[in-house]
Specification:
It is built from 3 helices and 6 strands. The protein has a single domain, classed as Copper Amine Oxidase, Chain A, domain 1, CATH 3.30.457. The protein has about 110 residues and is α+β, with helices and mostly antiparallel strands.
């Protein structure tokens, strides 16, 4: 098993942790909810001049301001990585957390 992520975006209000829920079920729930909201996220990225790409029919998202400023997110596992710095991974459970993180990290105007 890999090293734990360095940061956590906090508890998700949209996709809360359910005690006793199997990890596979939790990952499926995260994936389904985030994928259902991807069009709203795409509109948000366009407003902010961000390039947004979904890979492999949904499980891998790439968000970039330019070739040297980018993030990758796996919604089902909540793994968010900036600039391929795996050791500094962040647990990011939903699109609202993702937006807040990008605003903070990239100095975007809300």
């Amino acid at each position: 098993m890999g090293k734990p992520d360095a940061k956590n975006a906090g508890r998700s209000k949209k996709i809360p942790f359910i005690p006793g829920e199997a990890p596979q079920k939790r990952h499926e729930r995260r994936f389904t909810r985030n994928l259902r909201e991807h069009e709203d996220f795409k509109e948000w990225t366009e407003v902010h001049g961000i390039i947004f790409t979904i890979k492999n029919d949904g499980p891998h998202w790439i968000i970039s301001l330019n070739p040297s400023v980018f993030a990758e997110w796996w919604p089902s596992s909540a793994k968010l990585v900036l600039h391929k710095r795996w050791e500094l991974g962040i647990y990011c459970h939903d699109i609202d957390q993702l937006k807040r993180f990008l605003v903070e990290q990239w100095g975007l105007k809300e």
